[in-house]
Amino acid sequence: MCNEYDYEILSLHISPDHVHLFLSAHPKHAPSEIVRTVKSITAREMWEQHEPYLERYLWGGGSWERSYYIGTAGTVSTDTIERYIERTEHV
Questions:
Q1: 30 vs 72, higher pLDDT
Q2: How far is residue 86 from each of residues 12, 79, 90, measured CA to CA in Å?
Q3: pLDDT for position 61
Q4: Which of 79, 71, 75, 5 is closest to 42 using CA atoms?
Q5: Of 11, 41, 44, 80, whose CB count within 10 A is highest?
Q6: How confident is the model at residue 79, as a pLDDT?
Q7: What is the mean pLDDT of residues 49-74?
Q8: Do the domain assignments include residue 91?
């Protein structure tokens, strides 16, 4: 997905109830477009790979919530954001 859409994952942390994803993308991609793309592709892949499990535990519901948070790095360094994502305290 990243190669196809020209995204670069800088840091990733997966918790039981949420995901922190720090990525770099060309400014031509709107943040909402990036979220929609990532959520739809990962949901499709999860269903293709784990359909029996997901059917049993999601009771027909979706894989992702509609909500999301987007922030930009701005004046914060990449290292600061990556350290935050790698910390376990925010879980």
A1: 30
A2: 8, 10, 9
A3: 59
A4: 5
A5: 11
A6: 84
A7: 73
A8: no
Distance CA 19, CA 72 (A): 16
Q: What's the structural domain count of the chain?
A: 1
Say whether pTM exceeds 0.90.
Answer: no
The predicted pLDDT at position 63 comes to 62
Domain annotation covers residue 70: yes
Domain of 73, CATH number, reads 3.30.70.1290
Q: Is 5 a catalytic residue?
A: no
How many other CB atoms are found less than 10 A from the CB of residue 1? 12
Kindly report, residue by residue over 27-55, the tens digit of the pLDDT: 999 999 999 899 889 888 888 888 887 77
Q: Please tell me which residue in 5, 7, 53, 84 is annotated as part of the active site.
A: 84
